[in-house]
Amino acid sequence: MRQLFLLAGLALAMGVNGCSTVTSAQHFGDAKLDSYKSAYVVIAPSGNPNIAGYIVTGLAHHNLKVNSGALKDKPAEVGFYVTYQEHWNWDLAVYLDTLDVQFMDNTNNQLIANGSFRNNKFFETQPDPRDKTIEVVDGIFAK
From the CA atom positions of the chain, what is the Rg in Å? Predict the structure, then answer.
């Protein structure tokens, strides 16, 4: 009986730990993120503007000068710009289900890095969108 409780507890712990995932970031080309000094976050026209603010906060933690706004207002001198797509779901409350973040080189519009968050479909949680967004940004820099 004790072994049954131990196995049930282990299964529950594995399920709780697997509730959501920030996937490993990918880097493309030879660009080194620490060589950039500035970034611009493009606010998604149909997205939650808070996500852009969370990305700005995450980038600022990496000593970048960061601004945000519409794509048409992106400064020419910025090192890279950030785009993102988020999907929200609801189960008695609205929660972040997925988030994809892309870093684009401002000189050639090429993808230089990306990262993402996925909520587990089996053990869905209601993660803090600020924490998960910053975790995605940090994961891109950690790669």
Answer: 18
pTM of the entire predicted model: 0.82
DSSP H or E segment with residue 41: strand 38-42
d(CA 136, CA 95) in angstroms, rounded, equals: 16
Helix (H/G/I), strand (E/B), else coil: 3? helix
Strand ranges (DSSP E) for 79-136? 80-90, 94-105, 111-119
The SS3 call for residue 57 is helix
Express each pLDDT in 64-86 by its tens digit: 999 999 999 999 999 999 999 99
The two beta strands, 65-69 and 38-42, are parallel
- Biggest CA pair distance of the chain: 67
71 secondary structure, DSSP code:
G
